[in-house]
Design a protein that fits this description.
The chain is α+β, with helices and mostly antiparallel strands. It is built from five helices and nine strands. It is about 35% helix and about 20% strand.
Length: about 200
């Protein structure tokens, strides 16, 4: 059965951290002395978390309480690019920077991938993007995000939506790769033509 609720009723929301970045080049420090703070620039244009990120924050006890857990959702709440990302333990001992709000699902009837999909849906983003016309630096507060109304279908329907979304992303990626291959082929062919004078 479908129902609607506010986001704050099904998740806990906490803010990311403000921690100075540092270098892990100091050989006097062990590698485990550093953790990774994830920021907006760590995502590519398709909202994929980059796979080659290096640790960039010196470990502190206060940081360990904020380590990201599997299936927590990062919501980029500041700037001109609102988006949600489902964290799935891509990095050990990682934290979210202050641009993010971190969502921990507390309702077992919510598929984390479904909620991420809904937060990234164009109709949902219209609500957030209204901020871009009223603020110099657009931002969404914890309170505002918590008040967002979420439709909750049954888990089977949520899973079907997630699967369709994954297929859409795969199709988009294939089309991008095809377009890149076609462009490279045409560039090579045309350059060869003018070089050979034919």
């Amino acid at each position: 059965m479908n129902y609607h609720c506010k986001l704050k009723d099904v998740v806990k929301i906490r803010s990311g951290m403000v921690v100075p970045k540092t270098s892990n080049k100091d050989e006097r420090l062990l590698p485990d002395a550093f953790v990774r703070m994830i920021g907006t620039s760590d995502f590519d244009e398709d909202l994929n978390l980059r796979k080659d990120l290096e640790p960039n924050v010196l470990y502190k006890d206060s940081i360990s309480r904020n380590f990201l857990q599997n299936n927590e959702i990062l919501f980029n709440a500041k700037g001109n690019r609102f988006f949600a990302y489902l964290f799935q333990n891509e990095y050990k001992n990682a934290i979210a920077s202050a641009v993010f709000l971190v969502l921990t699902i507390v309702d077992e009837n919510i598929n984390p991938a479904y909620l991420t999909w809904y937060l990234n849906h164009p109709e949902t983003l219209k609500i957030f993007n209204a901020k871009k016309t009223s603020q110099t630096i657009p931002s969404i507060t914890k309170q505002e995000l918590g008040e967002l109304e979420i439709p909750i279908p049954d888990l089977s329907t949520q899973e079907k939506i997630v699967q369709l979304d994954q297929l859409k992303k795969q199709r988009t990626q294939i089309l991008k790769q095809l377009a890149a291959s076609q462009e490279a082929y045409i560039n090579a062919l045309t350059f060869k033509t003018i070089r050979n004078g034919k």
